[in-house]
Amino acid sequence: MRRRSTARLLVPASAFAGFRFPREVILLAVRWYLRYNLSYRDLEELLAERGIVVDHVTLYRWVTRFTPLVIDAAQFTRHAPGDRWFADETYVKVAGKWTYLYRAIDQFGQVIDVMASQKRDLAAARRFFVRALRQGRPAQVTTDRAASYPRVLDELLREVQHVDARYENNRVEADHGRFKARLRPMRGLKRFRSAQIIGSGHAFVQNIRRGHYELATETNGHLRLAAAFDELADAV
Fold this sequence. Notes:
Layout: H1 23-35, H2 40-49, H3 56-74, E1 84-94, E2 97-106, E3 111-117, H4 122-132, E4 140-142, H5 148-156, E5 161-163, H6 170-183, H7 192-209, H8 224-232
Parallel strand pairs: 1-4, 4-5
Antiparallel strand pairs: 1-2, 2-3
């Protein structure tokens, strides 16, 4: 008589499986790097002072691997963006070459999306808005006077009000400055992928601290980010 086989429930392995350090240490390093103006060597030194000996190359690998995973794990807790968007592109240096970073925020300061691009053209602007529209649809979009924006908005968001008056986009330009301040200790980025990951990670941390996620909502503001990462640890 043949025995009936017993089906096994396949549980996805944790992303931390196989790593020598526990997830608490890895997420602490990722959180500190995204939150504070640190280089990887600064982070290496701070951890060493706490008895955690890990080299800066490993820290880089942690940040690039786990930042997208944490962002994805938090997606279902994210607030919908407001109906007024402010979109613009800034630039960062990657491997000695200027790379563009498209960014958009809403009227409440939530960063809607970030996209790195090697070009600043119609195709890049279209890709950015296609990405951003996954989060919702605005009633009004404010941009600078780049020629690509009216064409993209007419194609994807014909019904919205488009504002391109001078100084109206200062809100997102000021927000660019916060990201640029984060980049200064890094002395430039070495890889294009890093521009996307660090840009998205910085926006993610900023959004949590501003209360745009249903994470650690009952926690004191100064501890919200740490508590949010603790909540997300089981989902990564």
